[in-house]
Design goal:
Largest sheet: 7 strands, parallel
Number of helices: 6
Structural class: alpha/beta
Number of strands: 7
Helix content: 40-55%
Radius of gyration: 17 Å
Strand content: 15-25%
CATH class: Alpha Beta
Strand order of the largest sheet: 3-2-1-4-5-6-7
Order of helices and strands: EHEHEHEHEHEHE
Number of domains: 1
Distance between the termini: 44 Å
């Protein structure tokens, strides 16, 4: 039976790189996005390049609780994935004392609440099966406070705490949990910035790190993956 991976926000950036990495290894793919055209383009790309796998996509806005749960239900009707990657996220620059309250709410719902609800949808199945691997894509903004990080930084600190707690809960059940904490990565979030590409992490390196962590024996787990640009933080 084919193995499968669920990656939220899989049409671009880190999410797409992880999808491509695992598709190349023969994993069936589940993913979602708010953009249906991008989902169909990804599905066509994957099916053209990796004819042996199955690709399941669904339009969903994971900042909305009901849509997150509907996406989980869509996946569970087909299979319980072997790997869950909570990747969906947004970045809205701002300061906690002056940003719009709506920005805080949208960021927390997208970056944190989506991971909470989606993870809860699959943990019982993972626990009963006594295997599975849950990755959360955080950020070094969840390790080091910085000005203008605002709600984004708060959400990533919270995501790290969520992942640490989940790791402890899953230990007795054979389910692995890993935090991935990249620094500045070359994605659409940095469009328009006047910096050379070599100042950023390559999304393929993040994906390769996830694949490597997944491939350890059942006796070991990588709890945290911290990746920074070789030339230092931006």
């Amino acid at each position: 039976m084919s193995k499968s991976i669920l990656v939220t926000g899989g049409t671009k950036g880190i999410g797409k790189a992880i999808v491509l990495e695992f598709a190349a290894k023969g994993f069936d793919i589940f993913t979602c996005s708010r953009n249906e055209e991008e989902l169909e383009a990804l599905k066509n790309e994957l099916e053209s390049n990796f004819s042996a796998i199955k690709v399941h996509v669904k339009k969903a806005d994971l900042s909305v609780k009901e849509e997150t749960k509907a996406f989980a239900a869509f996946v569970k009707k087909i299979a319980v994935p072997d790997v869950l990657v909570n990747n969906t996220g947004i970045f809205i620059p701002g300061s906690l004392h002056s940003e719009l309250e709506e920005n805080f709410e949208k960021t927390m719902h997208t970056n944190l609440f989506s991971a909470y609800y989606l993870t809860r949808a699959f943990t019982e199945d993972f626990m009963n099966r006594k295997n599975g691997h849950i990755f959360t894509i955080g950020s070094i903004a969840g390790l080091t406070a910085y000005a203008n990080g605002g709600s984004y930084a708060v959400s990533k600190w919270a995501m790290l705490g969520f992942t640490k707690c989940l790791r402890q809960e899953m230990i007795p059940h054979g389910v692995k949990v890993t935090s991935v904490l990249p620094g500045a990565t070359y994605t659409a979030s940095w469009e328009g910035v006047d910096l050379p590409e070599n100042r950023f992490i390559d999304v393929a390196d993040v994906a390769a790190s996830v694949w490597s962590a997944y491939n350890l024996s059942p006796r070991s787990v990588v709890e945290e993956i911290v990746i920074r640009p070789q030339l230092g933080d931006i």
